[in-house]
Design brief:
There is one protein chain. This protein is of the alpha+beta class and 403 residues long. The chain has helices at residues 13-21, 53-70, 79-97, 108-111, 197-202, 370-381, and strands at residues 114-122, 127-136, 157-164, 173-174, 185-193, 204-211, 219-227, 237-242, 261-269, 274-283, 296-303, 312-313, 324-332, 342-349, 357-365, 387-392. Strands 5-2-1-8 form a 4-stranded antiparallel β-sheet, with no helix packed on it. A 4-stranded antiparallel β-sheet has the order 4-3-6-7. A 4-stranded antiparallel β-sheet has the order 13-10-9-16, with helices on one face. A hairpin with an 8-residue loop joins strand 3 (157-164) and strand 4. The radius of gyration is 43 Å and the shape is elongated. It starts with 12 loop residues before the first helix and ends in an 11-residue tail after the last strand.
């Protein structure tokens, strides 16, 4: 450094750095890896960034002493082992933040979904009320809802009911379809009419969840089955059941197949001196047409019918196996003559251009037995009171009746 006379001394930048950093002679700046002999390739990504040079120098002294103490340990110089340790630390942190999705049960009883519903047996009215509430899946892979069936990851679910044994279109009920959802909420009540105490002992309700498809066959999602004997009369029972795979349905002996049931009301009107016969509804009728349905109507006769004027006929209900009629017919007759009469009720399937098909019939009167005889006696004993009863149709045509 040269200095002219009268000038103040000047210091170069290099000299200033040397004085500020270290008082001795200036040393060339080393690479960062020189301060970390354990990591010849540089810092691992898991470690924090190095701060100012002063921090690096102070850290290097501490690291050097640690390296000297651990130099005798085998494989400690492997950077992959250090990276694995850092990765394990990160994984432990994530484990506290996220749910363990692998911990859920992968059994079909949970992956197919769950269904919430309630059942009520109205013993007085012989009705089984089935309220379908909602369906969902217990959070597999962060998703709630039904098992997706469509390409968009959603479903168009609906619920259908069958009574077993004897599953057919006659005892099939179904909810409306809810589109593009995995969390359907129906809150819909479906009712079976004509359910007897005997049915509650031997029947099972099958509840299936399906995905509606306009261009292909509807797809099965899952089902659950409830033996009706688990229900107590007039008490609502709530269920939240896991859906299961489709189970086989046992085939039933055709000779035991029911033709359906009919609800009839009887009342003797003392003021008008007539018997009032009410045809209220039918349930679970046998299908007579190729489309799996019938076009039913009901005829009544009061026998013996010497003048052949006792025939009455309801309106035809198109394409149904559970028709509701709510029609009444009056027969002018003295009360004392009722003990000599038989009421014959028959159900038919209406066909255009050919003979109508007989579905089933029932006879009420003094010569009947069981519930049919009891219904007739109850009418005689309770004048001016409407007595309603369900009766099972038989496949035998009562009397020789022409359509």
């Amino acid at each position: 450094m040269t200095q002219r006379k009268g000038e103040k001394p000047t210091i170069s930048i290099q000299e200033h750095m040397a004085i500020d950093v270290c008082p001795g002679p200036i040393q060339p700046i080393k690479q960062i890896s020189d301060y970390f002999p354990r990591y010849p390739r540089g810092l691992p990504p898991a470690l924090p960034h190095v701060g100012p040079l002063r921090s690096a120098l102070s850290t290097s002294s501490a690291s050097a002493s640690t390296t000297a103490a651990e130099s005798d340990r085998p494989n400690e110089d492997n950077p992959d082992r250090a990276l694995a340790g850092a990765s394990a630390s990160l994984q432990a942190t994530k484990k506290d933040e996220e749910p363990d999705v692998e911990g859920y049960d992968s059994d079909d009883s949970t992956t197919l979904g769950t269904l919430e519903f309630s059942l009520l047996y109205d013993q007085e009215n012989n009705a089984l009320h089935c309220t379908i509430n909602k369906a969902k899946l217990p959070v597999p892979r962060y998703k709630k809802g039904l098992k997706p069936m469509d390409h968009n990851g959603l479903s168009d679910p609906y619920v259908k009911l069958h009574l077993l044994p004897g599953a057919s279109k006659a005892n099939k009920l179904r909810t409306k379809t809810l589109h593009n959802t995995l969390n359907p909420v129906w809150n819909e009540t479906l009712t079976y009419y004509g359910i007897t105490d005997e049915d509650m002992v031997r029947k099972t309700l099958r509840i299936s969840v399906c995905d509606e498809d306009k261009f292909r066959h509807n797809e099965f999602i899952g089902e659950t089955r409830i033996p009706l004997k688990k229900l107590k009369p007039n008490q609502t029972k709530n269920f939240n059941n896991c859906l299961e795979k489709q189970l086989p349905v046992k085939t039933e002996d055709k000779s035991l197949e029911e033709r359906g049931r009919i609800m009839i009301s009887l009342k003797y009107n003392t003021q008008k001196s007539c018997l009032v016969v009410g045809i209220i509804r039918c349930a679970h009728l046998a299908a007579m047409d190729a489309n799996g349905f019938s076009d039913p109507y009901v005829k009544t006769y009061l026998k013996p019918d010497e003048n052949k004027k006792s025939k009455h006929k309801t309106a035809v209900k198109k394409k149904t196996l559970n028709p509701e009629f709510n029609e009444e017919f009056c027969y002018d007759i003295k009360y004392a003559d009722l003990t000599k009469k038989t009421l014959e009720v028959t159900v038919w399937d209406y066909d255009i251009g050919k003979s109508n098909d007989f579905i089933g019939g029932v006879s009420l009167g003094i010569n009947a037995n069981g519930e049919r005889l009891k219904h007739w006696f109850d009418c005689l004993k309770n004048k001016d009171k409407k007595i309603e009863r369900w009766h099972t149709l038989t496949n035998e045509l009562p009397g020789s009746l022409n359509d």
